[in-house]
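Morning. Coffee machine broken again, so started the prediction first thing and wrote up yesterday's gels while waiting. Chain of 401 residues, entered below exactly as on the submission form.
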Amino acid sequence: MGESYDVIVAGGGPAGLMAARTASSQGANVLLLELQAQIGQNQTSAWVSDEFLRKEFSRSERSDVERIVIHSPNKELELEGDFGRIIDREIFDRILASKAVKAGVEVWVGSPVRGLLWENERVCGVRSEAGEWSEEIESEVVIDATGAKTEWSSIFLKEVLNSNWEGEKARTNEYLMANVLGERRVDIYFNSMLAPKGHAWIYPLDQEFATTGIRGVRIHPDIALDEFIGRETPERLKNSDPIGAYRGQSPVEGLLETMVGRGILAVGSSAGQIYPLSGHGLKYALESGRIAGRVVAEGIRKRDPAEERLSEYEQLWRNMFENEIRTGMLLRSYFEISPDRKMDTLLEVMEKNERLGRNFVNIFLGENLEKSIEEFFEEEKCAEIFGKERVEKILKLYRLS
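Came back before lunch.
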């Protein structure tokens, strides 16, 4: 047996980095293992609200969002205003990594977790392997932040729950584009042929750069993104070329039945903490990491990292966000039948009422949901389009009916 730590965090994305930083800052001896050779190379950009982008992350900001254009197959709707910020995920993740290291976290890159160690039916560490190198590392608690992208992701789901994501994962591909028309504008495209149960997008970055991506089920991400660019021929990408490509996938089935086991818990997309409608999950990742790190560190201090104590993490997270995830699942189900005709009709309704358009953007992003849902579905036509039975279920989640 090799080295021993209080906490091992598997995965160096935002959820893992925040969990590691929080636990270490509260006195735990923490090791973070990252599969990739460096932190911050999994995604190009993210669209976040003004409230999300606190001062400590301001260096990652790349563009304001002053306009949004929503496209359906036969309509488009343009909205103007303050719609948050686009951040550079590579810089954002590296800021998190720097803060984790300053808090005392030990980071090993290029160190994939290939399995869990068990003792008396309790997780007691991990096995990390890379090439011919292999090491077993003990810990009091393991935090699974491996995501849901690769064969060795979601270790809690696979090795503790003895399961896997049953449905289809939403595949994602992004290009970093150079020589783009400089606009502080986000384009969102809904097209069931190009992005079934998903969408495509263009986000602004620094001047002359943008990211374009696509997310959907049953798609080959490379082909789907090229087909989207070829068919839609966005004017702002007319003279641009990709200079980087990023691929991923995320679960769309919703939250795990449980996120906590004996000596282990799951955070971020490993736990299904993804907003199903848009696929966004950054705010969930940070908050789950923060709660998990605090709960685990407290258990270590009190020499009681038992499953019952770790379960406080799951209870707190569900109280904060479970209704949002359920709302996203119900809204996503709206796109399963005749999505293109529904989006055409929805844009027609929203172009007559700008407030509805702003509420739809909030609903799509999973921001300010209770107020936005209440106002949006006060419009009878919107409730009819989404289906009154589905809308009633959503309103009940927020005790609005």
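The chain is about 35% helix and 25% strand. Going to sketch it on the whiteboard this afternoon.
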